[in-house]
Amino acid sequence: MDFTTLTIELLKGLAHFVGNYGIAIIVLTIIVRLAMWPLNVSQQRSMRMMQTLQPKMKAIQDRYKNDPQKMQQKMMEFYKEHKFNPMGGCLPLLIQMPIFILLYSALMSPQFIQMAGDTSFLFVNRLDTTLRATAGISNDGVMGASQYDNFVLGKTAKVVLKNNEVIDNVKIDKPNKSLEIQGDLVPGENIEFKMSLDHLDLKFSQLDNIANAEMSITDLNTKETEKVNFERKEGLLVASVPSKAVQRSFHWDILALIALFGLTMYLAQKIMMASQNNSASADPAQQAIQKSMGTFMPIMIIGTFIIIPIPAGVLLYLITSNLIQILQTVIVNKQMDSEELKKKNVIADDDLKSARKVDNKE
Question: pLDDT for 53-112, tens place per residue?
Fold first, then answer.
């Protein structure tokens, strides 16, 4: 079982528990973020320390700017002295990237499309829909398609032997690659599908006696799924499926999700930067750079998401993740502010204790 299938099975289990795949994605996001909470707290503390140590680091760089090797040595000594890891803030990002890719692969996979792709959540009509996607109606006997669409089979088939014996749930080997189109795909004309018998996980004696088989075919572009009856023709299973031309449509519910993602990302970065910029040692030039990045980064990512097809379910994951990030930033910032205040009070008390009492002279 590959990681994509494991992700789908996890979503399936969560959806069975909470009753909806949209809520299941939110629950999955919460689980992931809670598991990563210590790492993200460490990242936040690392960024705060980086801001505090920045003036001293800049002084070392200025002092040894003509001797890069010496500068590197002094910087390493400085990091060690303050127990600071400059790469500490990168680990959470490196861990979250595979999770994002897995969820993207899962929601775009034929297994999810066939299982729950048409699931709605709040104002979102389909969790597998992207901003610009063709819309097909599943199980109506006609495959909505455009000229360059790609098709995949489901994971199993129902096979009927010549003696009328029916074998259910026959595993299909490599369902993403086993289906072929005979000739050209012309929307409005029948699509001629074929597949080799060797892709069915059956004994040789059973393969020789196959009469026909029923399999699900999914159009990866339209997300439409049709159950198709294949007939035996020598060493192949063949089917002819009526088709109709479909046009790309613009989904405003996905645009709303992209806008929500941009807004939550902007707020998360603004709160994070506000915490760092409150530091007395904050570098004004660095503050200006961070402020610009906090504004333009969400805009750049929104532009990317408009171009690259991101499923609604993945956007739901990202929005939930941003909201949790905002909550975490507020909580951890309060903790760090409280810790810094206590340190200042302790230092002030120590200064008072060490101060010598001066008697007034008459």
Answer: 666 767 777 776 677 777 777 777 766 766 666 565 566 666 677 777 777 777 777 677
Q: So where are the chain's domains?
A: 3-110+251-343, 134-248
Element (H, E) at 227: strand 225-233
- For tokens 């994971």, the residue is 155
Q: What is the pTM of this model?
A: 0.64
Tokens 């920045």 found at: 54
For residue 184, how many other CB atoms are within 10 A of its CB?
9
Rounded distance between C-alpha atoms, residue 157 and residue 109, angstroms: 18
Decide: 237 and 139 in contact? Cβ < 8 Å.
no
Residue 231 CB contacts under 8 Å (≥ 6 apart), including other chains: 211, 212, 237, 238, 239
Q: CA 192, CA 182: separation in Å to the nearest integer? A: 5
Dump pLDDT digits (tens) for 195-240.
Answer: 999 899 888 888 889 999 999 888 877 777 888 999 998 889 999 9
Query: Would you state the pLDDT for residue 92?
Result: 63
How do beta strands 180-181 and 236-241 pair?
unpaired
Contacts of 127 (CB under 8 A, 6+ apart): 21, 22, 25, 107, 116, 117, 119, 120, 121, 311, 312, 313, 316
Q: How far is residue 291's CA from residue 294's CA, in Å, rounded to a whole number?
A: 5
Burial of 157 (0-12, 13-18, 19+ CB in 10 A): buried
Helix locations, the chain, DSSP H: 3-18, 21-35, 37-63, 68-81, 91-108, 110-116, 204-208, 252-277, 284-307, 312-354
Torsion on CA atoms 303, 308, 314, 318, rounded to nearest 10: -20
Mean pLDDT of the chain: 77
Query: Could you please report the per-residue DSSP string of 35-55?
Result: HTHHHHHHHHHHHHHHHHHHH
Q: How confident is the model at residue 281 (pLDDT cuts 50, 70, 90)?
A: very low
C-alpha distances in Å from residue 36, one per residue of 89, 94, 115, 173, 247: 13, 12, 29, 37, 42
